[in-house]
Amino acid sequence: MNRILTETYPDAHCELNFGTPFQLLVATVLSAQTTDKRVNLTTPALFAKYPTPEDLAAADPEDVEALLKPTGFFRAKTKSVMGLSAALVERFGGEVPGRLNDLVTLPGVGRKTANVVLGNAFDVPGITVDTHFGRLVRRFAWTDETDPDKVERAIGELFPRKDWTMLSHRLIWHGRRICHARRPACGACPLAALCPAFGEGPTDPETAEALVKPGPFS
DNA sequence: ATCCCGAGGG
DNA sequence: CCCTCTGGAT
């Protein structure tokens, strides 16, 4: 299945826009329970006004809340991004640390966010267990764990370190495009023949026709 | 109504 | 383990 994912999504990548590791960190915190498209509509104004941890730590919280409103959870996210900015200035010399154990000490930063930053700003392999990743690895029966930390460990044992970041991107892309939470587009899925969850539950009607005409080799 | 590249708190 | 934070798209 991994080979097909690799062929289907050879160029899968992080779709958040950023100019610095700090901006990627902030954008990733903002991406919780929001589409990255909406984050990308929000961050330009934020980064224009507050490009560095020093700027954001010294900002007026009400102004930041107003800027972050469209991303949802705007009070909690303001607290997180201003808090992590202050922590970066106080404890890390204003630089984003390149180690997981340091990143997760920042307010609002869990393992998922930390691994996004490691994988996309530091070239350090990281498994990012978000809602898509967890759903897909369970559908694929790669693990039956539901706790994100346990999923991360289980998948980490199945794949070599160097593949962790791209595997994360590919599963997330596949989850967004085909293997949706509610009505997966099984009829359009290149993994259909190999997928243990194929045909389970309702399928996207737009692709259902393909299920009846599976192709030349069935 | 349900989902979106979650994290912190109880 | 649960709950809450929150707005926009479908």
Automatic annotation (TrEMBL):
- List, for all copies, the residue spans of the domain called HhH-GPD: 30-177
Entry keywords, A to Z: 4Fe-4S, DNA damage, DNA repair, DNA-binding, Endonuclease, Glycosidase, Hydrolase, Iron, Iron-sulfur, Lyase, Metal-binding, Nuclease
Cofactor dependence is on:
[4Fe-4S] cluster
Q: What is its EC number?
A: 4.2.99.18
Give the catalytic activity: 2'-deoxyribonucleotide-(2'-deoxyribose 5'-phosphate)-2'-deoxyribonucleotide-DNA = a 3'-end 2'-deoxyribonucleotide-(2,3-dehydro-2,3-deoxyribose 5'-phosphate)-DNA + a 5'-end 5'-phospho-2'-deoxyribonucleoside-DNA + H(+)
Residues bound to [4Fe-4S] cluster? C179, C186, C189, C195
Select a single GO molecular function from the record's annotations and give it: class I DNA-(apurinic or apyrimidinic site) endonuclease activity
Q: How is the cofactor bound?
A: Binds 1 [4Fe-4S] cluster.
Top enzyme class: lyase
> Which family is this protein grouped under?
Belongs to the Nth/MutY family.
What function does the entry list? Answer: DNA repair enzyme that has both DNA N-glycosylase activity and AP-lyase activity. The DNA N-glycosylase activity releases various damaged pyrimidines from DNA by cleaving the N-glycosidic bond, leaving an AP (apurinic/apyrimidinic) site. The AP-lyase activity cleaves the phosphodiester bond 3' to the AP site by a beta-elimination, leaving a 3'-terminal unsaturated sugar and a product with a terminal 5'-phosphate.
Q: What is this protein called?
A: Endonuclease III
Organism (species): Actinomadura sediminis
